[in-house]
Every structure is written in structure tokens, then in C-alpha cells.
Amino acid sequence: MSILLNHKLELQKQGFTTIPNIYSNREINDLIEVLESLNIESTNFRKTTDLFAIRQFLKEVPEVHNLIFNNNLRQLVYEYFGEDYFLVKSIYFDKPPASNWFVSYHQDLSISVNKKEIIPEYTNWTVKQHQFGVQPPLEILESLYTMRIHLDDTDKNNGALKVIPESHGKGIYRPETIDWNTEKEVICNVPKGGIMLMKPLLLHSSNRTSNNQRRRVIHLEFSNKKLAKKLDWAEK
Known about the structure:
single chain; seven-stranded antiparallel sheet; four-stranded antiparallel sheet
């Protein structure tokens, strides 16, 4: 059984997997060079002492598209997700060395859409930086895959994700109901140039940075589902 097949099976069963060496050091440095040259005045850019983020990343910074979708990544999307999958969300995160940004356990229950429409089963509408978000039906959430591309070595000391394996298969799983007598926590260390794949319904969290090391991540989401009539994915 190949290593890649092992990762695919782990993703399906556990709800996550980490794969090193998707990008070379040169490819990562090329991405970083583009990011460091950006004008950060756009309304889709968010900058605080704890976090820098770019929503609709591939729309805002189209020059990174070919750098991100190298041959390794294109093959992985095709083999792991399926040829009918397409990108529906892209965000860039930069967690600075002195960041106190902490994220408690949660599931990613919101998708980004092109507009607001009152439709049954589409609930909990939000607007962040002119971007509409909504919680869709469960089957839409179950279709999603998240890919996190790491531009820095990441471990428990600079905000690596903590996850609860197999929690993605339990539907809407409220964090306050976690039974720590039966659930276990895993820290997902990812080397520079590696990726983490996960199902957004997987319960996950991250700690504050404690080692004064940066954590830069490109967050991509993929689906193969159409939304309700009149709605579409914001970044399709």
C-alpha cells in the first residue's frame, strides 16, 4: 500500500492527515516573496497585532495561483477529492511571533457565498469584511475538504492545530458536549512546505504562540456541491 493511499485512508477515517514536501523550499520562498511585496490597504485584508489575514486570497492576489497549484497539489486534489471538486474559499493567515491569538474547539460551519437569500436550511447569516457567510445543510458541510499549506514549520509552540480524531463523522458536534473520557486530542505538526488536509466538521483548535516563531498558512476549501437556487459560492 502506497504512502499516498495511507494518507487518503487516514483523511477519510480520522478526518485529517498531514503530508510533507508538497512544496520545495524554493517554491515556498517564491510565495513568501509575493506576500511580502503586497500593498495591505484592501478591505479584504485584516491586520491586528495578533493576526494578519487576507480573505478571498486568490482573487486578491492572483499571482500566487500558479505557485500554489503546482503539479503535486493538482494531483493530490484529483486523487484525494475527485475530478469534480472545485475551490470555494481561500484565506491567507499570518500569526506573528508575539501573537496571543487563541482559538477554542469548534467546527467550521460557515461557507462563503455571493449574496444573502432567505432560504430554508441556510441559517446563521454573517457579514465579515463585505463577505456573506451562512451555515448550509449538513450534506454541503460533509462534502467539504480543507487544505492548509504551511509556509513555516508549525508545532504546538506556534499554534499548530489540535484536533479530535473522527469527530467529523458525528454531525454538528457542540464543543461544550465533548466527553474527554472518550475523546482524545492530537496535535498536528506540519513542516514548512507540507500540508494538512482535514474535514471542516472535525473539531479543532489552536493555542497561542509561545516560541516567538511565525506561522503563515494558506487555507483552501473545496467542494463538489451546488448550492440552493439563487446562491453560489463566493469564490467559485
